[in-house]
Structure formats: C-alpha cells, structure tokens
Design a protein that fits this description.
The complex is a heterodimer of chains A (about 190) and B (about 180). In chain A, a hairpin with a 2-residue loop joins strand 1 and strand 2. Chain A has about 190 residues and is of the alpha+beta class. Chain A contains two helices and ten strands; from the N terminus they run αββαββββββββ. In chain A, the strands form two sheets. Chain A has a six-stranded antiparallel sheet, with no helix packed on it. Chain A has a four-stranded mixed sheet with strand order 8-7-4-10, with no helix packed on it. Chain B has about 180 residues and is α+β, with helices and mostly antiparallel strands. Chain B contains four helices and nine strands; from the N terminus they run ααββββββαββαβ. In chain B, the strands form two sheets. A five-stranded antiparallel sheet of chain B has the order 1-2-8-4-5. Chain B has a four-stranded mixed sheet with strand order 7-6-3-9. The chains are: A alpha+beta (about 190), B alpha+beta (about 180). Chains A and B meet through helix 1, helix 2, strand 5 and strand 9 of A and helix 1, helix 2, strand 4, strand 5 and strand 8 of B.
Amino acid sequence: MIYRAFLVVLFLVIAIGGGAWSVWLVLDKAPLFGRLTSGPWEAFPVAGTPEADPYSRARHVRTGGLALGPSEGIVLTARTDSSGENLRRHCTYRIEGTMPSARLWTLYVTDADGNALPRSRQKRSATHSGMIVFDANNRFSISVSPHPVPGNWIAVEGNGRMQVVLTLFDTPIAAASQLSDLILPTITEAGCDA
Amino acid sequence: MLRLFHTCVLGLIGAGIVHLAILFMLPGYSVRDAWTQVSTVADYYEPVRLEGSNTLPAPEDPFLDAVACRFNLEDGMLSVRSQGDVPFWTMAIYDERGLNTFSISDRVSNGSFLDAVVLTPIQMQRLKADETAETDQALFLETNVIEGFVLVRAFVPDETWQPRVSAFLDSVQCEALESR
C-alpha cells in the first residue's frame, strides 16, 4: 500500500516537476531557434511574430518585447568581435566596413542582458546613419571606446560584457532567410584599459 | 522493481505532456507580454506613449519613440491617423499575445502623414461591395487579428527633432469606424 502511494507520488513528481523544469530550461537557458548569423552578427527575424516556433513565441511572450516586423526592419546583435572574443566595455573596438542597403540604421551598445547602457548628458552610447561621417568609398569606421576618439565615436562606461545592437530599418534583408551572403561591418579590438 | 521502472517511464511520458501543455498555455496566461502591459494602462482606442517606464514595453532603440493603441475590430474598422512631418515612421499590428503580425513603413504611404484603416477580410468585402463608401487616401490593411494593438514608431535623429516627433506621435488618433 505504501509502496503504491510512493509510486503515485513518484509519477507526479517526475511528470509535473520534469515537465515544468524542462520548459524552464528550454525557455531560459537554451539558445533560441531560428538564428541567422554572419560573422559576429546574429539575428532572429521571425522572433516575436506568429511565424516563430512555439518555443520562441513562449519566450517572447514571457519577456514582453516589441519585435520589429519584416517591413519595419531587422535587429542584428553582436556579443563578440570578429575574432570571436567577448565584447568588453573597458576595451576599444572599431566597427568598420559598409552597411547593407537600408533606409537608415542605428547602432547602440547594451549590457550583456540587452538593456541599453545609461546615457549621460553629453555622450550617447548610440549613433545612427545620419550622424556618421563616411569616407569617399562610402565606408565608415566607428570607434566604441570609453575614451574620446576623433571621428565617429560611441561612448561606453563601466566594466563587464556588452553587446552591440545594429538595427537596419526598411531594408530588403529583413525578409531574408540567411545572412551569410551579406557584407556586414567587422568588429576589431584596438586595445583595452589595464 | 519492474513497477518502479514502469512508473518512471509513465512519469517521463507525463513530463512530455506537461511540457507541451505549459508551452502552449504560457502565451495565454502570461502577464508580462506587451498586450497585457499596454492593457493595464490604456483603454481601447486610447493612444498611449510607450516611454521607458518600468511597466510599459518601450522600444529598446534609443532613437525610436512609439505610441500604442488597443483596438477590437468587432467594434468596427479601426482608423489610425496622424499628422506631422517626421523622417521615418512605421506601423505594426500586434495581436493579443503581443506578436507582430503585420507591419508597414512610411514608404507605402502617400506622404509622411499616417492614414490607415485596419479591417478584417469580411469588413473589406463589405467595403468593396458598398459603392457609396469613401475610400479616399487611406491605406487599407487587412488582418485576421480581431483584438490587439497598433504600434506607431517614429525615428528621432537627435534632440532637435524631439518636439516634431512628439507632436506626430501625440497627434495619433485611433477610432472605430462604424461598420455598415
């Protein structure tokens, strides 16, 4: 009798506990499905739309974000530089190259969890296509650095890891199924504070 | 021993069922999704600016401002209008789970002003059949979303643009048009 009760309890613990734990594990810990990558940049174009898989949908609903639609734009995030090293806030990086065709684009830095860094009054941790100085070949170089840099500069403060978020608005690549053909800017480290 | 093994196998099958049940029920019961959060502060057809407060979902991009407006197409077609001259705006229709189901950018508009009508396919058919209906300059956006919200985003290149963009977003009017 006691053995039977034990079996019933064991069944419930495995079923309910295991089911809930596995959902939590997939939604909180596992990487999202539907990821497109190109160099250090990654994008989740269908996340937050009805086309997303049930796991991405559940995760999106839990975090409560407002996803961009394909006619609006696409968000590309870099957690590492082009050589695969994590981006850190006390280092200087150069983001160089050309952008895919888009009506406009914005670039900002966030902490490791994707929260925009606090902006101080004089310097914003962000820039966009209308602010950037391009060279004669329509290329650009943006420095992400804790110290002032001549030219295009994004200021960062503090320590710890960061992410660079590039949003391309009104662009044909938002409907693309792969990013690998695209030429996106490279991210190169140019020294770190001791 | 065999019964113990049997129970474990049944438990794992049960865990799979619980896993799927939670996964598919989660969107309906979540309180953190954008729709629920907008619903707590704004009534239907009441435009609300999404700014970096703790309760409302706001655009993460520092150069974007947004205004949201809840609708229910059972009340009739939804008209969304706004006036002003801003460098770039987009409009998206989100369903009651906070998923982006349809979006447009100002490229499809006749000017930088916004004049759109959101309606269901049935309302669209009725409108087409009705020859007296005024189909002026508005964009007609067909959707299967009955209840949801529209989100108008506008690009703020720098602080000097802030008043103009704010005026554009504050002028967003959304109202239910009487269905015939």
